[in-house]
From TrEMBL:
Its cofactor is a divalent metal cation; Mg(2+). Substrate binds at residue 130. Mg(2+) binds at residue 131. Transmembrane segments: none annotated. Gene3D superfamilies: Ribonuclease E inhibitor RraA/RraA-like (3.50.30.40). InterPro entries: RraA/RraA-like (IPR005493), RraA/RraA-like_sf (IPR036704). Keywords: Magnesium, Metal-binding. It comes from the Bacteria. This is Putative 4-hydroxy-4-methyl-2-oxoglutarate aldolase. One of its GO terms (molecular function) is metal ion binding. The keyword Cytoplasm does not apply. It comes from Variibacter gotjawalensis.
Length: 227
């Protein structure tokens, strides 16, 4: 992983997730078509700015009660994990309950406050969330569904690879997320993304300007697209 500076983070936070996807496609063409969520995720706070952080991965289940007497020890180890470097973090939790995905919500008022307090900016999960009016202020949530109950939700594993609606994530991956979804950002191309963004913005502005010109619109749009 290439070392990221404050400048890199400021740049990534200044653009939305679709723009990140566009730039990754431009500078790393082999990444086109994967590395991002490909199904809708509920976002109860669409007006929050993009979040950029390092993946803290976990897997959960909620349909059946947890087995074993050492579960609390696992939860304490999990807290150590999410509080560890690199920071800031983004929780990326895969619900592995098969046909019962989202049966119980891991996320609500308590967990959002705990995770925010330990340095996390938000969560991306195919599972469910609840307590929307009471979650920690500014904590972003992208989730597969809503659920009123936590049922028997419990951690199965953490720090291991997960997959959220087609986005394969490893612990420590750099994640960019907003109301549109999430994407894994290859850290070794962020400098190239910054350079490419200037040309991308200029080209899009030319096309939009041409599209809004009532005189000879078609020809101007074609010229802008070809340029």
């Amino acid at each position: 992983m290439s070392e990221l500076t404050t400048r890199h983070f400021e740049f990534l936070r200044s653009i939305d997730t679709p723009t990140v996807c566009n730039l990754v496609e431009m500078v790393a063409p082999h990444r086109r078509g994967f590395g991002y969520t490909v199904k809708h995720l509920h976002c109860p706070f669409p007006d929050l700015p993009p979040i950029v952080g390092f993946a803290k991965t976990a897997k959960i289940k909620s349909k059946d009660a947890v087995k074993g007497e050492s579960y609390m020890g696992k939860r304490m180890d999990y807290l150590d994990y999410i509080a560890s470097k690199p920071q800031p973090g983004i929780s990326v939790i895969e619900d592995i309950d098969g046909e019962f995905i989202g049966y119980g919500a891991f996320w609500g008022e308590v967990q959002t406050n705990v995770h925010k307090g330990l340095g996390l900016l938000g969560v991306v999960t195919n599972g469910s969330i609840r307590d929307i009016p009471m979650v920690a202020k500014g904590f972003q949530m992208l989730a597969g569904s809503l659920s009123p109950s936590h049922a028997w939700v419990h951690l199965e594993d953490f720090g291991t690879p997960v997959n959220i609606h087609g986005m394969a994530v490893e612990s420590g991956d750099l994640i960019h997320a907003d109301q549109h979804g999430a994407v894994v950002v290859p850290t070794d191309v962020v400098d190239e993304m910054m350079k490419a963004n200037v040309g991308l913005m200029e080209r899009e502005a030319r096309i939009i300007q041409a599209a809004n010109d009532p005189v000879d619109t078609l020809a101007k749009v074609k010229a802008a697209m070809a340029g």
